[in-house]
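Journal club prep — side note

Before the paper discussion, L.F. wants everyone to see what a predicted structure for a comparable chain looks like in C-alpha cell form. Sequence:
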Amino acid sequence: MVSDFFMEKFLQSYYDYLLKEKHFSLHTVNAYVKDVEAFLNFAEKDTTDIDKITYQHVRNWMVDLSSKKMSNNSINRKIASLKSYFKFLYITKTITSYPLQAHKALRTKKVLQVPFSEDEMKKIDRSDFEDDYFGFQNYVIILLFYTLGIRKSELINLKRTDIDLYKQEIKVLGKRSKERIVPIMSSMLPVLKEFLENRKNQFGEDYNKNIFLLKNSKKLNQTFVYRLINNYFRGVTSKGKKSPHVLRHTFATHMLNAGANLNTIKELLGHASLSSTQIYTHTSLAELKKTYGKAHPRFNTGEEDL
C-alpha cells in the first residue's frame, strides 16, 4: 500500500481532479490512480519526497514491469497515467520539475482491429436468445451496439429519459460528460418499443434507473457486457477478438463502406478529432480493394498499365 503521506497529500487531490474537473468516468479514474499507486509503492523504496522523483525512477519501474513479462502496450498505458499525474503535480506547483519531459513511448506492434462482416452481423437472430425478459434484453444490447456505435460505458449508463422514440433519437453521455444525439434507425423502433414495455412490466416505470439492469435490479457492469458479446459471437464468427469495441468498430466500418463520410461517422461516434475516426479507413481499404478488383475490367488481366 502507498503510505498515508503519499495518499493524503497527493493522490486524493489528483483523484478529485480527474473526477470533478476532467470529468473522467469512475472506471478510468480508478485505473489511473491504481497505476500511480503502483509506481509510488515502487519509488517509495528510494524516496518519500515527491519532488525528488526523477525519470530514472520511472525507467527503473519500466524495467521492473518488463522483467515481469508485461507487454509494451500495458507499460505505455501505465506510463500515460504517470504523465497525467505528474503534469497535475507540476501545474499545481506541487513539484518544481516534470520528470517525464523526455519520455518516449515504447514501440508496439500495431494490431489491425478486424470488424465483423455484414454477413456475420446478419446472423444475429432473436431466436438465439433465451425466451424471457433478460434474453430479449441481451438481444437489444447487441443490436444497439451495432446500430448506434456506442461505447460499452455509454450503453451501461443509458437511462430511460435518454430514449425518445417520437423523435427517433438517443442521448448519449460520452467521454468527459460530453453529450451527443444519435438517431435510432427505423428498424430498431419496434424492437425498442417492445423492450421498453417489457422493462416497465419487469421493473416498473422508473425513469431514473438505467435502461439495462441485472436480475438484482442493479445496472450492468463492464464484465457482464464484455462476456455477453464475447460469448454470443463465438457462435457467429471465427475472428479472434470479440468485444463491444469490435462492434463499435464494425458500425463505423460498415458505415464507411456504405458511403458515409468521415465527419458524419466522427459525430456519431463522439470522437473529439477526425484523426481518431480515420483508423477505420484502414479496414475499409480492404473492402475498397475487393470492390475494385471485382468492378474494374483490367484488374486481373495481368496487362501492363497503359
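L.F.'s comment for the group: Residues 301-306 have pLDDT under 50 and may be disordered. Keep this in mind when we get to the figures.
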